[in-house]
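note to self — DONT lose this again. spent like an hour looking for the file last time. sequence + predicted structure for the chain T wanted, 208 res
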Amino acid sequence: MKDPAFLFYPNDYLGGTMGMTFEEKGAYIELLMMQFNRGHMTPHMIGQTVGQIWDKIQDKFIRDENGLWYNERLDVEKEKRKTFTDSRKNNILGVNQYTKINGKKSGHMDGHMTSHMVNVNEDVNVNKNVSKKEGKIFVFPTIDEVKKYFSENGYSEQSAITAFNYYNVANWIDSKGRKVKNWKQKMISVWFKPENKLQQFKKEKMMP
C-alpha cells in the first residue's frame, strides 16, 4: 500500500520560498503534491497544472535521465519515509539486520531492540535534508545549526540568517552554480567577515 504522507518542514519551506508570490507558492505546492502522487512529471503535466507560472518556479526542480521533472528534496524525503516505515514493519515482526545475516530469526525482544536502535538513528536523520551526488552525502544544515555555528565563532545571528537564506532558497547551490559540499567551510570562506562580527568581539579586537 502506498504511504499516504511525507514529512514537511515549515522552516525549510519558508526559507526556500522566500521572495515568491502567493501564486507561485501555491503552484509550487501543487507540483510537489502531483510528484508525490504520480511520480516524476512530464512538461505537459506541469503545463496543465501551473501554466506560465512554471517559468518562475522551475529552478526548484531538476530533470531525471528520462527528461521528467522532479523536486530532489521530495524524492529524498519519500525514500527516507519508506525506509523508516519498512523498519517499523520489521520491528513488529521481530526481524532485523542480524536475523537476515545469520539466516535465522532471533527472539522477539532481540528483533525489537535492534530495530529500535536503527529507528532511533533514522528518527534523528528525519530532520536532515540529504542530497546525494557521486556517492557523497551532503547534509543540509538547519537555520538553528547555522546560527549556533556563527555564534560559536563570534559572528552575529543576523548574518547567520542572511547566509542561511541565501543558500537555502537556492537549494544550497552557490553563486557559481555549484552545489555546496561543506556548509561550514562555505560560511568561513564567504561569510566570516569583520562586518559580520558580534559587537563584543569587535571591541575585544580593538583593545590593546
